[in-house]
Amino acid sequence: MSELPRTLARSWSSTLKLPKSTFPARVTPADQTKYLKRCTDDLYAWQRRERPADRSFVLHDGPPYANGDLHIGHALNKILKDIICRVQLGLGNRIRYVPGWDCHGLPIELKALEARKDTLQEKGPAVIRKVARDLAERTVKEQMKGFRRFAVMADWENHWKTMDKDFEKRQLGVFREMVEKGLIYRRFKPVYWSPSTGTALAEAELEYKDDHISTAAFVKFPLIKVPLYLEQNPLLKGRTISAVIWTTTPWTLPANAVIGVHPALEYTIVESAAHGYLLVAQSRLEYLAKTLKGDLSVIVPGILGSDLADRTLYQPLFKASDSEPQPIIAADFVTADSGTGLVHCAPGHGMDDYVACAARGISAFAPVDDNGNFTELAMPDDPKRLSGKNVLREGNAAVLEHIESLGQLLGKHKYEHKYPYDWRSKLPIIIRATEQWFADVADIRAHALKALEGVDFVPASGKQRLANFVKNRSEWCISRQRAWGVPIPALYHRGTGEAVLTRESVSHIMNVIDDRGIDAWWTDDANDETWIPPGLRETSGPGYKRGADTMDVWFDSGTSWAEIETPYGDHGYPADVYLEGTDQHRGWFQSGLLTFVSHQLTFGRTSSPLAPFKTLITHGFTLDEEGRKMSKSIGNILHPQTIMDGTLLPPLKQKKGKAKRQLVNQEPVYDALGPDVLRLWVASSDYTRDVVIGRQVLQTVHTSLHKYRVTFKVLLGALSDFRPQNQTPYDQLLLVDRIALLHLSEMVLAARGACEKFEFYKATNAVNRWANLEFSSFYMEAIKDRLYTYAENSPSRLAAQTTLFQIYNHLQEVLAPITPLLVEETWEHTPETIKNLYEHPLRRVVMDPAREWQETSLGTDYQDIVAVHSVIKTIQEKARSLKQVGSSLQSFVHIRLPNGTDNSSVLRRYLDELADIFVVSSVTLGETDEAIPDAITKAEWQHSEEYELPNGKKGTVYVFSPQASKCPRCWRYVISEEEAAAERVCNRCEEVVEGLNESR
Questions:
Q1: How far is the C-alpha of 589 from the C-alpha of 60, rounded, in Å?
Q2: How deeply is 836 buried, as exposed, middle or buried, from its count of CB atoms within 10 A (0-12, 13-18, 19+)?
Q3: How many CB atoms lie within 10 A of CB 783?
Q4: CB-based contacts of 89, cutoff 8 Å, min separation 6
Q5: Contact 913, 969 (CB under 8 A)
Q6: Where does the Aminoacyl-tRNA synthetase class Ia domain lie (predicted)?
Q7: Cα 21 from Cα 715, distance rounded (Å)
Q8: Average of per-residue pLDDT values in the chain
Q9: Which residue blocks in 363-492 are alpha helix, DSSP H?
Q10: For residue 45, what are the contacts with CB-CB under 8 A and spacing of at least 6?
């Protein structure tokens, strides 16, 4: 008998092994700052030193635009990249992630000038470039500060900007390669032109508005000549026949050059009482009659388009009175799906029109200036009638007035349709022929498509999307009429305007830029011949001048792959991963692909060209909880900083009797959780679609993050006195411990497999399910008694601690890429006995769960246990509602097994462990045909319910009032009334207390 009598009245809590940990309930802002640096800058520097160079992983940054504050979309993008890098770090790789910024282009130029409009007297190129550069520099610093607060691990000190001298030099080098390969040319042809910003645009710079309203018109053109067989038709003798066209852009009619018909379509000549003889597609007669609100009589049916083409001439409506008549031609793009089946073609204002006319030697003509206003050339006979009028506004109306005055307007109407807008100004664009520089995509398109064959796409649909953009593109307009950008290094003859662009001329200009700086291209004297290669310097004559065009910003960022050191990795790709929003299929992904393929072709790699990326990942856009895009006008924007700081207001609630929603209070909806709450939202989202964020979403994320914190606190508390050297061998663990390791193994493998496939939301789902169900609700409930009431070195307690130790290590590794600050904080509070033996979890190469943990038979055992356990819980809740039970230990359980249950049943094999597993004071077993024990029938209360095992067999569970008294130390109902009256503890607790007393 120990010196500590069993009957001694005392506080038993001092003899319990209650969890102890310094891990706080919440982290302070000061600690956040400390942990942030450790798990980002310090970690990145460490891995660049310590990880092997031959195991590199390169994530190349799609540069954000240095224009404005960070928004939630930035957070989604940058955090996704960081999670990917940290997953790779856990796999033992050395990470290369160098952030970049896109700094050129019109938005920065306009914003800089707007901010300085009160102080700037002049706005020449030198001034524009200075204020734009200053704005970009400031913005990069502010955005970088914000990105670093997201706990993004990167080489911030060596970040790159498209306006850096080294970057511009590399970009010009790629451009020179394309010049040498003959892929850069200049041509007067139609391009997308933005009158609102005064520059040419690429397809990637357009947004399409579905509800654009145009004034469409039916216009007739009098025919001067028709095919001979029609001319000789008596029904047409002395009649004026007019070809009828339908257009949604009447303003392009002054540039009309031909009318197109489809050679295989049938046309007909009809008579209209109000409009005379008209030529239209036969299949469009009903539509035209309805539009003109009058009957049409067929005069000559069945005229093939091929009979009309090149044998029919018509009188133009806007050209000089003595101008030559214009032809009707065959054009395959003509359809009878809308309009009249005859298409007015203006090669200066239409892409298809240009191609069709160029094949016949008909040049483009576009009497519209940079601001979208007609020039005097629009109407040579009456120059002032259209000159100066905007083609999208009063100019369009003036064109229709002129046609109506000639008696050639059949009708006009409002027409809603899809139309391109400038993505920056949000105003409509026009198609206009100008002298521009182009990159020849047609020559490299097949190579680019072949390069995509070896690329992995996430989601898989991205492959076809990107391929379609490449397939549908024959050239790339790369020149812009702006001052803020990289110059197109072309020289122009002052007399003829002829452009010079050769490898030699570009190399010479690059050398001057290297010596004087890129701004000197604009600031040097216009007559400074230093810029002119010696071979072009003339002793007399007009000489050459520098051009004023700059490169498309997509060319800037598209060549950013050149920033990555060569040679490339084992697979030959510059980057393992490119990741951006879905809009970049027509933007950065495409420009990077085209320039890198061009680069390879220059060096003769034609058989198996590569893309600049091995894996291409795209994410969606951010939406509010009602599925709307984030918008200042709607007021639904969420700022990343307010989310991290916890200053987001609570949900709006409806007050009784009020139709208007009002704020209930101004308290934060959750604590300031720092970057991890934002990161967990990103990881929990299926980013391949548009991603929803809002108060309710964030509250759910907050709950999960809090669960992780509580889990770590529990683990650290339970491991406070654990020595890893004392780990229990697997075959000596209890059933519930081995089940816990099986569940851990399944969670780790599921989470890691999902992360390696970039499916982070599946990983967080696996962790959340495990934390809430398998760990918290099952395992921790089952082992609390062993942890708290058993002796410190008892085999049972050490077995539980061994299991928790493995859970702790693996959970740190799983969460390391997602919530690095939380993991860093856990390490701060990890017992030294563990820290001395193990690597830091953020630096650790992830461990595979032991194979012995993956006993498939345990899964079957667990399902049988859960089937019974869930019924026990249901009954206990019923008893609790009747005030019959408080603690689950205040229950005895009797299980009647299904008929035919043999000794292999987990319920028979582990009967002595079931009380702990079910967290009750006693478990007994019986057969289905056995009588109900007297203890149940005589119990103060009892409830029963049927259970069904996964194999379909059924039994019954009885939960009833305890037939013993409560041990004052472990709270199990296992002692007699006499022992309880004497304040004695149970035998197990007595042994523990005696051991404590002897140790003293």
A1: 11
A2: exposed
A3: 26
A4: 43, 47, 51, 95, 153, 817, 842
A5: no
A6: 41-692
A7: 9
A8: 89
A9: 394-405, 445-451, 461-471
A10: none
In 541-603, where do the E strands start and end? 544-546, 550-551, 575-581
Give me Rg for the CA atoms of the chain.
Answer: 39
Which residue reads 């582990």 in tokens? Answer: 910
198 touches 289 (CB < 8 A) = no
CATH code of the domain made up of 859-968: 1.10.730.20
- Fold category of 695-857 in CATH: Isoleucyl-tRNA Synthetase; Domain 1 (1.10.730)
Letter string b/e over residues 516-532, b meaning 16 or more CB atoms within 10 A of that residue's CB: eebebbbeeeeeeeebb
Give the span between the Cα atoms of 349 and 475, in whole angstroms.
17
pLDDT of residue 540: 66
Q: How many CB atoms lie within 10 A of CB 723?
A: 15
CA pair distance 64, 160, nearest whole angstrom: 11
| 223 Rama class: left (phi>0) / alpha (psi -120 to 50) / beta | beta
CB-CB contact of 95 with 57 (8 Å)? yes
Contacts for 827 with CB less than 8 Å, ≥ 6 apart = 812, 835, 840, 841, 842
Tokens of 545: 């001048």
Structural contact between residues 422 and 429, judged by C-beta atoms closer than 8 angstroms: yes
Omega before 99 cis (within 30°)?
no
- Provide CATH code, domain 212-418: 3.90.740.10
CA distance 618 to 585: 9
Cα separation, 769 vs 749, whole angstroms: 14
User: SS3 letters for 602-657?
Assistant: HCCCCCCCCCCEEEEEEECCEECCCCCECCCCCCCCCCHHHHHHCCCCCCCECCCC
Domains of the chain, residue spans:
212-418, 695-857, 859-968
Whole-number Å distance between alpha carbons of 449 and 22: 58
Tokens found for residue 607: 């058989």
For residue range 689-703, list pLDDT tens digits in order: 999 998 889 889 999
CA dihedral sign of residues 433, 412, 282, 231 = negative
What would the two tokens of residue 504 be? 């030699």
Q: Terminus-to-terminus CA distance in the chain, angstroms?
A: 15
- Angle ∠(810,816,820) on CA atoms, nearest 5: 140
559 alpha carbon, distance to own chain's centre: 21
Separation of alpha carbons 335 and 331, rounded Å = 9
Name the percent of the chain lying above pLDDT 90: 67
**What's the pLDDT score for residue 666?**
38
Q: State which H helix or E strand residue 284 sits in.
A: none
Question: How far, in Å, CA of 407 to CA of 897, rounded?
Answer: 98
Strands 409-422 and 206-225: antiparallel
pLDDT in tens, 527-552: 888 999 988 887 667 889 999 999 99
Query: What pLDDT, on a 0 to 100 scale, did the predictor assign at position 1?
Result: 34
Contacts of 481 (CB under 8 A, 6+ apart): 198, 199, 200, 370, 548, 549, 550
Mean pLDDT split into 10-residue runs, the chain, 1000 residues: 44 80 84 92 96 93 90 94 97 96 88 71 80 94 95 96 96 95 91 88 83 92 93 89 93 94 93 91 89 85 92 90 88 88 93 88 91 91 89 93 92 90 89 92 92 95 94 88 92 90 95 95 91 83 89 94 78 91 92 94 83 96 87 78 73 40 39 86 96 90 93 95 94 96 97 96 97 94 92 93 97 97 96 92 95 93 95 95 93 93 91 94 90 90 94 94 92 91 88 76
CA 79 to chain centre: 10
Packed helices 461-471 and 588-602: angle between N→C axes, nearest 10 degrees: 70
Domains 695-857 and 859-968 share a fold: yes
The H or E element spanning position 904 is none
